[in-house]
């Protein structure tokens, strides 16, 4: 007995037995699919068309980036940074992300992306403020159009979508580039951000740096997808798979995605295949979950070495060029070292200043309590501040 | 509440109509105001609060979003970063929970994190509370989560006039406001003058809804009608109860609350949310800290039970009603009262 033959079903069977309404895919998935292999330029015939100026510029930034990573890691050992998630080995992704954007565009970094912010022109000391243990993000996001470093994974991706959407509503040709790791693609906010971006055709580029690990958990435990770039198809946006250690390839793919977004073509998901050479942070022990041999295979595919090979082939890797580049990187490191060794000036009262635009009576009272404690401390008799709470009437 | 509008201009209006009017006026006044949420467009929202806005202001200003609360609030954060003033609708109290991380980790902290450079002038409208026969996940009183989150204002109207005034004030605020709409009062009616409505300013002022001298009932949002009714019924018991409508949980108006309790010497806090870890505990503590020597009895609470919100068939046992309020008032140690003119 079919459903239609059951007692109580309509007698007028013919009207219920027609073909289903027409169905067709809402977009053609084929053009959205990523390449089968990560896109590469270095070591291929395409390398010949690269401009030498771009190569030397990328190289200088990569070398500075590597030195920056080393210096920041050193600062954790000296107690000057509370924590540092290194992007050593991922410099090509970080630098390409910064260079892909124009001044009017916005960068949405995660905590591992201070290098991208620095490459975009942010003062390294400002970029590292949060990781130093200070209470604020260190810079005015509007000044450099860099959102605050985001710690809860993938949660800044919807911000990028909303900002890009708002810019488009206002008629501004602003693109947002948002950065996330392979682990972050498992978060719900990744899904919701990509879905909203595609629905709104928001001018956003999502850059996933697949560095192999989410702290200790390998990609195989994050996803069963063919690749992270393939996820784009499910949202109706193109996915691009790129060799994240090939700086010119990254520069080209991100540049195309940014231009596409700016022209009104909507969002793109870019998966950069790379590797986290260092542990998750200085507090992590990578030997517990991966082998040295694996790290070595990636060291052999180092973004700086790849670029050096190309530059050497063109006769551009001269002693003088190398020395100048190195000197610039050393200057960056020395400046960072010196300024990070100075204790920041902290005013505990600032903890209350920016919680609200309009201070509440409750916070005014608590600020007064802390003020009294600080004054008593300064006067050398902190016990005098005891008993100042609860505060008098709070009028909002 | 007083108004300068002529009495002839006043006519019966529902809280829902006042809210709609507040959104419409805010959108007309400020092109930065954008309404977004599930079903807020053609349908006008499941409670019809956004009725007509998409038609009047276009879909870019009143946007049907995908069904994803974290995405709605997360994108609203980005829109606010670019200078817009989003008004987000969460469809029901318990459907706002997926947006909790965005709310706690970003909406509430962005201004502080950026030293004021990136304010979050967001209004998050959430229909809340029970009493409408809603099935599971449609009747939560979730205010305790929000008021425990530093950086958020938490506001809830209890009258038609306040629905307009507080929502306008919330949208105008440069701080993020969780705007809790008591859904069982959506269809409550009052004489209202829609031609001369005024915003409430500033946020954070409680309102005395009924003057009294025996004890103070402190309440907000959906529990105000029960308190007003209890105050009337209390006259038969010889109690002249004062009723304070908080209107705003954050900021909290200590001054109005404490002045009232000092006058009456007794206080009962009434709300639908559970008692343990609920707003009433904080309010009772604040009163005790500030008014101890004026109190004739411990501050008592009438709250929902500490249980998952009960199904429609049983919810009446859960909600603070007139009897439970008056039973609690009766426990305010009247026998020890030495003050002339007070008590039963």
TrEMBL record, chain A:
Keywords for the protein's UniProt record, in alphabetical order: Oxidoreductase, Pyruvate, Thiamine pyrophosphate
Q: Where is the Dehydrogenase E1 component domain?
A: 69-347
In residue numbers, the region (Disordered) covers: 1-31, 372-396
Q: Which cofactors, if any, are listed as required?
A: thiamine diphosphate
Q: Where is the composition biased (Basic and acidic residues)?
A: 372-384
- Signal peptide from the UniProt entry: none
Under the heading InterPro entries, the entry gives: Alpha-ketoacid_DH_E1_comp, DH_E1, PdhA/BkdA, THDP-binding
Q: Which CDD domains match?
A: TPP_E1_PDC_ADC_BCADC
**Which Gene3D superfamilies does this entry report, sorted A to Z?**
3.40.50.970
From what superkingdom does this record's organism come?
Bacteria
- What's the protein called, per UniProt? Pyruvate dehydrogenase (Acetyl-transferring) E1 component subunit alpha
Q: Which organism is it from?
A: Streptomyces bugieae
UniProtKB/TrEMBL annotation, chain B:
Alphabetical UniProt keywords: Oxidoreductase
State which residue ranges cross the membrane: none
Cofactor(s) required for function per UniProt: thiamine diphosphate
What Pfam families does the annotation carry?
Answer: Transket_pyr (PF02779), Transketolase_C (PF02780)
Q: In the record, what terms sit under GO molecular function?
A: oxidoreductase activity
Q: Does the keyword DNA-binding apply?
A: no
**Oxidoreductase listed as a keyword:** yes
Q: Which organism is it from?
A: Streptomyces bugieae
Q: What class of enzyme is it?
A: oxidoreductase
Domain Transketolase-like pyrimidine-binding per the UniProt entry, residue ranges: 13-188
What's the EC number here?
1.2.4.4
Record InterPro entries? THDP-binding, Transketo_C/PFOR_II, Transketolase-like_Pyr-bd, Transketolase_C
Record protein name field: 3-methyl-2-oxobutanoate dehydrogenase (2-methylpropanoyl-transferring)
Question: Which SMART domains does UniProt cross-reference here?
Answer: Transket_pyr
């Amino acid at each position: 007995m079919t459903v239609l033959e059951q007692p109580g079903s309509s007698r007028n069977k013919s009207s219920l037995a027609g073909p289903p309404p027409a169905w067709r895919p809402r977009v053609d998935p084929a053009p959205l699919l990523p390449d089968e292999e990560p896109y590469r330029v270095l070591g291929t015939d395409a390398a010949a068309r690269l401009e030498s100026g771009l190569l030397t510029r990328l190289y200088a930034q990569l070398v500075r980036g590597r030195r920056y990573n080393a210096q920041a890691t050193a600062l954790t050992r000296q107690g000057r940074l509370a924590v540092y998630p290194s992007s050593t080995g991922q410099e090509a992704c970080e630098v390409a992300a910064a260079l892909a954007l124009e001044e009017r565009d916005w960068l949405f970094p995660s905590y591992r992306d201070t290098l991208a912010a620095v490459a975009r022109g942010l003062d390294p000391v400002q970029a590292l403020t949060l990781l130093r243990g200070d209470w604020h993000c260190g810079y005015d996001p509007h000044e450099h159009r860099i959102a605050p470093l985001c710690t809860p994974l993938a949660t800044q991706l919807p911000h990028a979508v909303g900002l890009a959407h708002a810019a488009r509503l206002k008629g501004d040709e602003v693109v947002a580039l948002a950065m996330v790791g392979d682990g972050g693609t498992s978060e719900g906010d990744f899904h919701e951000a990509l879905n909203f971006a595609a629905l709104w055709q928001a001018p956003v580029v999502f850059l996933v740096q697949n560095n192999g690990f989410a702290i200790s958990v390998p990609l195989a435990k994050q996803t069963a997808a063919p690749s992270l770039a393939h996820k784009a198809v499910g949202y109706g946006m193109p996915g691009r798979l790129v060799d994240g250690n090939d700086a010119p390839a990254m520069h080209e793919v991100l540049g195309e995605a940014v231009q596409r977004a700016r022209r009104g073509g909507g969002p793109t998901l870019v998966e950069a295949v790379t590797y986290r050479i260092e542990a998750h942070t200085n507090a992590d022990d990578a030997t517990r979950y991966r082998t040295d041999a694996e790290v070595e295979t990636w060291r052999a595919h180092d973004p700086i070495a790849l670029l050096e090979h190309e530059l050497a082939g063109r006769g551009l890797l001269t002693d003088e060029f190398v020395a100048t580049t190195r000197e610039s990187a050393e200057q960056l490191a020395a400046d960072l070292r010196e300024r990070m060794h100075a204790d920041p000036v902290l005013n505990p009262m600032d903890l209350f200043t920016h919680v609200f635009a309009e201070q509440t009576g409750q916070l005014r009272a608590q600020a007064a309590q802390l003020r009294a404690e600080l004054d008593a401390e300064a006067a050398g008799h902190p016990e005098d501040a005891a008993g100042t709470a609860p505060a008098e009437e709070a009028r909002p | 509440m007083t108004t300068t509008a002529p009495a002839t201009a006043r006519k019966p209006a529902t809280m829902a109509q006042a809210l709609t009017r507040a959104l419409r006026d805010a959108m007309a006044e400020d092109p930065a105001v954008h309404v977004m949420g599930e079903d807020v467009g053609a349908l006008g929202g499941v409670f019809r609060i956004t009725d007509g806005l998409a038609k009047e202001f276009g879909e870019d200003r009143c946007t049907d979003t995908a069904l994803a609360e974290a995405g709605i609030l997360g994108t609203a954060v980005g829109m606010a970063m670019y200078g817009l003033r989003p008004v987000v609708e969460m469809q029901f109290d318990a459907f706002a929970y997926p947006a909790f991380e965005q709310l706690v980790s970003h909406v509430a902290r962005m201004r502080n994190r950026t030293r004021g450079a990136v304010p979050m002038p967001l209004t998050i409208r959430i229909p809340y509370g029970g009493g409408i026969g809603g099935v599971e996940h449609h009747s939560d009183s979730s205010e305790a989560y929000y008021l425990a989150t530093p950086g958020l204002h938490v506001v809830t109207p209890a009258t038609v006039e306040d629905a307009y005034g507080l929502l306008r004030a919330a949208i105008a605020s440069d701080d993020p406001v969780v705007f809790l709409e008591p859904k069982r009062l959506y269809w409550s009616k009052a004489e209202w003058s829609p031609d001369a409505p005024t915003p409430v300013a500033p946020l954070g002022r409680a309102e005395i809804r009924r003057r009294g001298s025996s004890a103070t009932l402190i309440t907000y949002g959906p529990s105000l009608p029960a308190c007003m009714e209890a105050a009337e019924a209390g006259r038969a018991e010889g109690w002249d109860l004062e009723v304070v409508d908080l209107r705003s949980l954050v900021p909290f108006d200590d001054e109005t609350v404490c002045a009232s309790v000092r006058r009456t010497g007794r206080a009962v806090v009434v709300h639908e949310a559970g008692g343990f870890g609920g707003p009433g505990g904080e309010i009772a503590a604040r009163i005790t800290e500030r008014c101890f020597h004026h109190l004739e009895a411990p501050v008592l609470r009438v709250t929902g039970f500490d249980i998952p919100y009960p199904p429609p068939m049983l919810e009446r046992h859960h909600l603070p009603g007139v009897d439970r309020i008056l039973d609690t008032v009766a426990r305010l140690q009247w026998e020890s009262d030495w003050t002339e003119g007070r008590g039963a």
